[in-house]
Amino acid sequence: RHLLLVVSLVSALAGANAATESEAEALLAWKASLAAAAALSDWTKAAPACSWLGVSCDAAGHVLSLRLVGLGLTGTLDALDFTALPDLATLDLNNNNLFGAIPASLSRLRSLAKLDLGSNGFNGSIPPQLGDLSGLVDLRLYNNNLADAIPHQLSRLPRIKHFDLGSNFLTDPDYSRFSPMPTVNFMSLYLNYLTGSFPEFVLNSSNVTYLDLSQNNFSRPIPDTLPKKLPNLMYLNLSVNAFSGGIPASLSKLRKLRDLRISTNYLTGGIPDFLESMSQMRVLELGGNPLGGPIPPVLGRLQMLQRLDLRSAMLVSTIPPQLGNLGNLRFTDLSMNQLSGVLPPELAGMRKIREFGISSNNLAGQIPPAMFTSWPDLINFQVFKNSFTGKIPPEIGKATKLEILYLFSNNFTGSIPVEIGQLVNLVQLDLSVNWLTGLIPHSLGNLKQLTRLTLFFNELIGAIPPEIGDMTALQVLDVNTNHLEGELPTTITSLGNLQYLALFDNNFTGTIPPDLGKGLSLTDAAFGNNSFSGELPQSLCHGLALQNFTANHNNFSGTLPPCLKNCAGLYHVRLEQNQFTGDISEVFGVHPILDSLDVSKNQLTGKLSPHWSQCTNLTLLSMNNNLMSGSIPAALCRLTSLRSLDLSNNQFTGELPHCWLKLKALVFMDVSNNGLWGNFPASTSLDDFPLQSLRLANNSFSGEFPSVIETCCSMLITLDLGDNMFVGDIPSWIGTSVPLLRVLTLPSNKFSGVIPSELSKLSNLQVLDLSKNSFTGSIPGTFGNLTIEISGIDLSSNLLTGNIPEELTYLQGLLFLNLSRNDLSGSIPESIGGLELLESLDLSWNELSGAIPPTISKLNSLGVLNLSNNLLRGVIPTGSQMQTFADESIYGNNPGLCGFPLSIACSDEGTEDHQELGRGTCGFSASNAGAVVFFCIFTISKSADKKAT
């Protein structure tokens, strides 16, 4: 009998050894399949499996638990033979880099009680076979990439208590096949793609205490039956869905509820008073709903409340002083509502508050100093975008745990309190957009932890204190738009973590410290609109991280830092209006994400090299008013994102590349004031593109009016072809093909023919300049159809004939009218006085006759008048504005005129003589023969002078 017992024991031990050996082999085979398994270095055949990391066994040596959490394991579960682990009760692989499908073979682990594959990269569907794990108590598949419908088989797990499928891409199951889950007490389905009304199977899971359905797309009202169905709820999170209707009054029956989060839905009807009965509440989040109404004072009775979130809830209210009774409150956010009134001093009673936010409201008054003396644990204070006034309380220095202080966009006045320098834990300080005055306190140098200091849009004066260099953690320094002056302290170069520096719109002088940027990784540097001088620091872009760089409107000189060429991340550059020199194409390299570059109004030289075409994301390129030369390379046509191109006022020569029409995003183009020549590039069958402004003035372009405009440019607003050598007619299509045109300037060309009446169809036209051409015929009477938008017309120095159309006087918005140096005849229209806004009128050097209409005295805005060299007669009208024109020359060579300011007086007899002289004939009688002869000679000589001119 003893021998039989020994044999049985040996046999059992042999079986156990065989079982553990097969389990070890299965685990080693899986380890071998992993791409990263350094943490499993002790998984070797030299040691028993039960001693390996994460492996637990029973007394017989069978693997019961596999816990490999956060070890960086990378690979799949495909090589793990689950049949070799029949006793496995716990499989916990949370927080690794595992991916691929969850194997259906997991269902063979009949002893499995806990399965945790959370925070990995598993994808595909959840195997429905997991529903066969009848002993499973804890299922965690959250934070993966699982998709498709939730298998209804999971609802049949008879012992399941913890059910977490959150943060995946799961969709609605077949709810009709979903069973109640009465054993579950923790259920989380957050951040998936679930839709429809509140799931019925959830309502039938009567023992749930923790329920998270947030960040889905559930809709319709929250069911009134929820408290009856789920009476044990302690945590309820329905945030970020599409639930609608009011907050159900039945929720007051959830006596155990401590945490209610229903923010960011479409709930309406205000904040209900019944919440006061939920005395165990620790967390109340209702924000992000269009609730409306006031903040109920009864919320002050929730003595256990620690977190209150009512942000962005369309609340119209004052802040109830009763909230000061919330002595356990740690966090409150009332921002983005329509709160008004003042901050009640009773709020100082929230003695445990750590984070306080009331930004973006209509609150006013002063900040109660007691807030800072009574809140010893305060770390975050945000009251920006309100209308708070008065000084920043010096008591703020008592809140020594403060890490974030946002007071920007208010109406604070006075100086920045030096006591802020006592807030040694401060990480972010924003006092911008206020009315703060005085100096920047030297005490700010004590803020060694500060990473962000923004003081822009205030009235600060003086220099930046040298102690700024002690703030070595500083990453953002923004003091733009103040009245700061003086030179930058050299200590600013000690800010080794500085990434964003904004000094623009101040009165700084002197040079930039030469070591600024050395050892830094500056991404943004803005020096614009100051009086800086000298050269830019050569080390400014030393870290090659520069993205946005503005130094415009200063007195900088010399060459640009050569390191700019290697800043591949440059995005936005403004250097205009300085005295920079050097070859532009030598300074800049290939910047693949460069969006805008403005180097205008400098003294830069060189040619446009083809490498500019590699800056393929450019939308704005402005190089005007420099000394650049050479031709415009065709390679620029590759800049297909370009919206604005300004090369004006340089020394470019040659023809404009025909490929410019490939710039399909172009809105603004200015190549005026260069030496460009040749016919303007044309093309046919063009798609329309968004060009609004085309300026070609003061070059040597030739040929006829650019026909390409008819087909490419229906959005055109400004067209300037002045001072070129264009010839031919203005095409009639201009009145219909460019209907948005506001400015048309064609002066100093060789255009001829009649002025097309179709111009009157340009209902948006504001300025029309056709001067110094060879237009013939009469002024179209249809110009009277131009709208009140028209403010200036210049038709001077042409060959126009006929009368001045009365219709021109219908243009009541006209400020400027020049018809001089033509052959216009007839009288000045009597209705000229209707142009009440007219500031400049020039009708000189024509053949106008008759009297000056008395209505001209109604032009009270007139500042410039020239009627000289015509055949006008009679008395010069008087009036308040006419009396200001004392220069005789503006009426000169009109021998029939008399009166002020001429020296010819108007007597009754003399007036008749002058009127007779002004009739434009050479007939005479004995009594006035001499005068008539003079008049005829004058007329002939004037005509000759005019032709010579």
Automatic annotation (TrEMBL):
<dbReference type="InterPro" id="IPR032675">
    <property type="entry name" value="LRR_dom_sf"/>
</dbReference>
<keyword id="KW-1133">Transmembrane helix</keyword>
<protein>
    <recommendedName>
        <fullName>Leucine-rich repeat-containing N-terminal plant-type domain-containing protein</fullName>
    </recommendedName>
</protein>
<dbReference type="InterPro" id="IPR003591">
    <property type="entry name" value="Leu-rich_rpt_typical-subtyp"/>
</dbReference>
<comment type="similarity">
    <text>Belongs to the RLP family.</text>
</comment>
<dbReference type="GO" id="GO:0009742">
    <property type="term" value="P:brassinosteroid mediated signaling pathway"/>
</dbReference>
<keyword id="KW-0325">Glycoprotein</keyword>
<feature type="domain" description="Leucine-rich repeat-containing N-terminal plant-type">
    <location>
        <begin position="22"/>
        <end position="58"/>
    </location>
</feature>
<keyword id="KW-0677">Repeat</keyword>
<dbReference type="Pfam" id="PF13855">
    <property type="entry name" value="LRR_8"/>
</dbReference>
<keyword id="KW-0812">Transmembrane</keyword>
<keyword id="KW-1070">Brassinosteroid signaling pathway</keyword>
<dbReference type="Pfam" id="PF08263">
    <property type="entry name" value="LRRNT_2"/>
</dbReference>
<dbReference type="GO" id="GO:0005886">
    <property type="term" value="C:plasma membrane"/>
</dbReference>
<keyword id="KW-0472">Membrane</keyword>
<keyword id="KW-1003">Cell membrane</keyword>
<dbReference type="InterPro" id="IPR001611">
    <property type="entry name" value="Leu-rich_rpt"/>
</dbReference>
<feature type="signal peptide">
    <location>
        <begin position="1"/>
        <end position="18"/>
    </location>
</feature>
<dbReference type="InterPro" id="IPR013210">
    <property type="entry name" value="LRR_N_plant-typ"/>
</dbReference>
<keyword id="KW-0732">Signal</keyword>
<keyword id="KW-0433">Leucine-rich repeat</keyword>
<dbReference type="Pfam" id="PF00560">
    <property type="entry name" value="LRR_1"/>
</dbReference>
